[in-house]
Design brief:
With 272 residues, this protein is of the alpha/beta class. Helix content is 28%, strand content 16%.
Amino acid sequence: MNSNITLTSPIVSVEWLQNNLNANNLIVLDGTINKVFDASSHQIPNTRLFDIKKKFSDVSNEFPSAFPSTELFQESARELGINTDSVIVVYDDKGIYSSARVWWLFKAFGCNNVAVLNGGFPEWLKAGYTTESMKMYDGALGNFTPSLQPKFMQFFNDVKIALKDKTHNIIDARSSGRFNCEIAEPREGLRMGTIPNSVNLPFTDLLENGVLKPKEDLETLFKAVADKGEAIIFSCGSGITACVLALGAEISGYENISVYDGSWTEWGSLVE
């Protein structure tokens, strides 16, 4: 008989997932950004597609992938059959990219039984584990009830206040080229620049071939930009890869961490 499982870390290996794939309360989510259903593509068995852009974002917001309302998050999570006692493992097709955003969203809505698959789908394929053709979830509705944790997500005015009062370190996950205004922003019409007094830690520095580096390496990277006792806001282009830094920081033992939802796309559009 398949029993229930619990999580002890915000990251799990492909071996762990393979060993626990039949657990009663496990839900595997594909959080690849901009992914659409395609029956000819493959997935980890019993995966459910987590549509960041359309189902789990405030699409009325002018900025991309904006934080959803509690009501929208609850409705969309329940449609995926997610329950209050579900253990959620999320992956993406790049290794670790948008999967960390999904992990952070669940945490922001009070769910701690969630982890990122280290190395994502590429690592699963590399290990030679079974896949299946992509399927749309059409099972029972879940009973997941969110409990909003306001400190996890920061918004434009929060960041303005944090800058004025010097309460937070702001760490930018964009590439050094973008941070140093040597490379144009990929979003058309968005100016180059940085949030004042922010420092740069490219999210790619945390990864090796799409897999998170060992904890000791992550601790060294974070120690260079912030002390463990400091309050931190992570930023990036549009609030996606900032969550990779949040994941690395949590593994490294940082507790007072948050993500700027609008990130540079919003800041660069609203501030001269």
